[in-house]
Amino acid sequence: MNTIIQLLVDWGYIGLFIATYLAGSFIPFSSEAVLVGLILPVVGLDPVKCVAVASAGNILGGTTDYYIGTRCDKEWMMKYFHIKPQKIRKTIAYLHNKSAIFGFFAFVPFAGQAILLGLGYLRANAFLTILSMSIGKTLRYIVVAYITLQVVH
Predict the structure, then answer these.
(1) What span, in angstroms and rounded, lies between the C-alpha atoms of 78 and 10?
(2) Would you give the end-to-end CA distance of the chain in angstroms?
């Protein structure tokens, strides 16, 4: 894994975009490690541009998860995720009018993909889901970059 991260760091902004897209979609990946590697003084890329590129890649990856969720049907969810029909009905009823704001939590490792798949499955408002997801994911990268720069300086 370290070799892959180093390769993506070597590719600069393009590597960062690829890493964050993968991490935001269906492949567990440490996009934060690539971001940190790029803003450290050794490489020294512009932290603001890195946060923008990381956010764009991660948001696109999350949007992919949401889209995949819209293509799922109840039988698929029951078969591959072992979710019982009554649990699906209860979840839909609970999240019916408030689900899009849960997109904010899509930055949470591993759970984020499930959240977005579920929101897509529920046909949550796409604009609000992507907006709330974008805010959460961007804030995460801002915090990572800020902490990294504070530790280095």
Answers:
(1) 42
(2) 28
